[in-house]
Amino acid sequence: MLTFMASMACVAQESSIVLENNDGFRLSQAKRLSLMVKKDIDSNVRVQLSNGSYWKHTATWYDGKGEWQKLVFDFTSSGIADIPTQIAIYPTTDEVEGEQDIYVDNIVLEDAPMVNGVLLSQIADGSLSGELTLTGSWMKGRCMNTDSNPWAEVVYDDFSTLGAKLSSKVTSIDMRGTVTKDVQIVRLFSNPNTVVYADEQYAHANVIVGGNSPSVELEDSYAFAVPEGFAARSVTLKRGVRAGINSFVLPFDVDASEVGAVSVATYGDNQDGTGQSVVFDKSESVAANIPFITVDAEAASLMSFSDKMFMPTPSEFGNVFRGVYAPQSAEGLYGIDSNGKLHRGGSKASIASFHAYLVGAACQTSVMVAFSDVTTGIEKLKGVAVGADPNVYDLCGRRVGTLADLHSLAKGIYIMGGKKIANH
């Protein structure tokens, strides 16, 4: 970015500001120049760029008589092939009798808009996903290419251009520190769960300024992830909740009552020695990013929360009972039903965001859920105490011997007395 400061007053139509630089002005591929201007009449302002042998001309309309405003001149269609060495600014292209007052300040060759260090113009449509960082100047506007006859209108809208390059898998956009003009914030939400970090607040949910957001709106049909934590005054989550038991993972702490449940429960351990039941430990609340299930929940389709602190999204969500922040295939994974039975997913099974699943042994076909103080599902937990059963089982619950046979078994993980043991 190159910045100049200049002003002039009481000038005639043909007068101009001329800036020269023998080394050339490093005009980026955006081919845009901006300036602050204040005039006493409404009329066009013309800017010319030259490499010393030819000029390229662009004009834009000034309609803020007596007030400072930012004008942007786009030279994309002017075919500037060489680095310009001169910039000339004319106060008007119209017939003006006598003199007029004009003040010009903050003349800037704007940096090109870039995403994760790549020029916006070089990014394929629909290819962007995950975390994005914007740099450079992001603008929307129009001006006139005065090299043609009649003048040709030049329309530029970096936000619409970016919108076409976003996929529904974009989870966050950091636009802090960018130069912006006429921001089209709605263009950034191909994924409605996208979180935008900005320097100023816009009339849209999921915008974070200074670590705070007035509102966050989420849907379980789309991916979600945040690289930085923030506070939100209100949060809504669209997802189906059945009466009874549901699986969850949320990016903020919750009490059982906030998810419409009598209690919540987190994964405990496989304690029955067969691999056919899993135990969950009940509690009144659960921390952010910890997968859990609800107990005796009320049915709902929209959940609301207040004053929540979002935590950064971790890369993993548990080894056995795992949370999901992006829709995915559930083939071979165990999803929970409202009665507490876990079903192994087939080839067409899928799981949505803000849910959780259990990873089971390859030979299992059904799994029951049990609680540390109350049993649910079809069978009661066997509750085998350590040392009460001398038999050794594989992870599929098949008896493979006793403690005396352990030394002759293959190396691996086995279950004895309700506990996993490693045989070296």
Question: Can you describe this structure?
Answer:
By secondary structure, this protein is an all-beta fold. It contains one helix and 38 strands. Strands 3, 5, 6, 8, 13, 14 and 16 form a seven-stranded mixed beta sheet that branches. It is elongated.
Helix content range: under 10%
Number of β-strand runs = 38
Proportion of beta-strand residues: over 45%
Radius of gyration: 32 Å
Give the biggest sheet.
7 strands, mixed
The gross shape turns out to be elongated
Distance between the termini: 63 Å
The tally of helices reads 1
Could you report the average pLDDT, rounded to the nearest whole number?
A: 82
Poorly predicted regions: 1-14, 373-388
| Category by helix and strand content | mainly beta
Which features would summarize this protein structure in a list?
single chain, 424 residues, mainly beta, seven-stranded mixed sheet, 1 helix, elongated, disordered N terminus
